[in-house]
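User: Hello, can you help with two protein structures?

Assistant: Certainly.
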Amino acid sequence: MCCAFSFWRDLALEKKRYRVDHVLLRNPLVQACIVRLALNLFGIPLPVFVAQLLDMIGHAALGVGLLVVGAGISLRRLRRWNWQVAIGALLRPILSPMVFGAIAMLFGLSQIQALVGVLIFTSPAATNGYIVAKQMGGDTDLYVDALTWQTVLSLLVLPRWVYVLRDPINGVLRAAMLP
């Protein structure tokens, strides 16, 4: 979401003309998702050695992604809070879990199902979005700033979500009083 936001913001400001579908379809991350969705749809299992190989590559990519995003952090920029960073920072840890919680109530999910979904939506965006934003000509500084603030806000909000969803009726009142 942050990647798309940074891309569209940059696109609107500089009037760049991209064919988004072409850029997205050439992205290896999108290609891998399409292949895996097709395999799941047709019930084709991955061979064990392929799954293990992809798992190792995924673990290595996570570390590299964290290093790349960490290298892009600027404390001076983080002190300048603007509306783009605010939207990017607040969407994931605060607004998304609220929307999911409403949908969970609408569909009658159990308390544990709602809690798991809310915790997933509260966690920060993926670090690979920085690389995607860079490839698509998006605002990588905006992505890094929003991701950094998402991480900080997630650390503050995650315990409150657990507290609220553990006891939905009384939890809302008590969570508001937590220091």
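That covers the first. Now for the second protein you mentioned:
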Amino acid sequence: MSDEFAFLPAGELVAGYASGAFSPVEVTRACLARIQRLDGDLGAFTHVAEDLAMDAARASEAAFAAGRPRGPLDGVPIALKELFATTDMPTAAGTRDRGAPASRDAHVVTKLRDGGAVLLGKLSMHELAFGLTSVNPHLPPCRNPWNRERVPGGSSGGSAVAVAAGFAPLALGTDTGGSIRIPAAFCGLVGFRPSWGAADMAGIAPLAPSADTVGPLAHSVADVALLFEVMTRPRPTTKAPQRRVGVLRQYFGGCPEIIASSEAALERLAAAGFEIEPVELPHALLPDSDVDIVDHEFTRAFDAYLRGNFIGGAPASVAALHASGAFLTDYDATLRRRSAYPADRRPYEALLERRAALRTAVLALLQRQGLDALSYPTSAVVPATLSNPASGLAVELSAWTGLPSLTLPIGQASSGIPIGIELLGYDNWQLLDAASEVEPVLRNAAA
């Protein structure tokens, strides 16, 4: 089967369908053949919905033949992290329990189906989205396509691998503290964490509802924007970017390869006419790990998710999941802690106050300096090996503030693994517009 469609942008696929150059059935069949041929070594998919995908592709082909495509992603193959509820595929959230379809689709899945998207299946992830590596003993190893002895990042590791390997032009992941941006960066992709609340999280397994987001991974900003628009609402009119970027060297970390790639990318932006402004945030407001918001929010939220999205076939609660043993033994203490409903809410309330103060400070900095975005490395470390899966180091500025952020590829480490740089803005579409101007400059840096 030809691989000619493997890395075509979503917009080009739809244009090809409209012109009759090729069809949704041809493209979907090619994606499925590529998955069958290559994913045994990469471990991106936990479930391939071949029959469902081909049925959806035939429906898209009929819509184009009638001159009535149902949306801008009609016929485009998309894959889902396996914590999105679906009625016709297992929804396991990375746990050992592989068997439970949901009683209804997640809200964003409904929007994709209504628009004619072809859902290829479910993707590997870190169990319960608890980590940043996607190493999961319940599943085959999920390997980075750039270096198969390295992790792809997590928790949306399968989402990144599926797009990077050419299995699908688009994938959906979730991001609470870096779970879209880290794997996108490690796999050389664009990954977008929208602002908190921009997309409906109904039917998506939660981690910490006050920080959880759902977003796209793709090869380009244009494709990310296309999927984001379908997930949410038509894009509004925005003002032109000012081409001013603030650099937060507080977040550059200590890895020489990441620092060098980041500085080289910023130099290219400056040479291309962008104004690069060194900036700082008050150290007392910066994110830290003294209090984990997931400890306070996970159990109540996950219990409600189980009650609201499954009728039999799934554990009734986090306590039942814990009692069943259908989880990683590494997380025994974590689940016990997160099931305890900490009685003292004062640390949690203080954390929410700090987050609000940091958001106010970031917005004030962006406005005062007239910046399109703040910039810093997406991860301060390169990914670990499969045999030594130490977590990545995410910058939680977006997670703490609820503001949108996006990672772009800028180069490669000596291991062959891509390096990403993050942009954080004050508005989803403003950030996507700014990123679309930054992207071609940084792609030259990454080449």
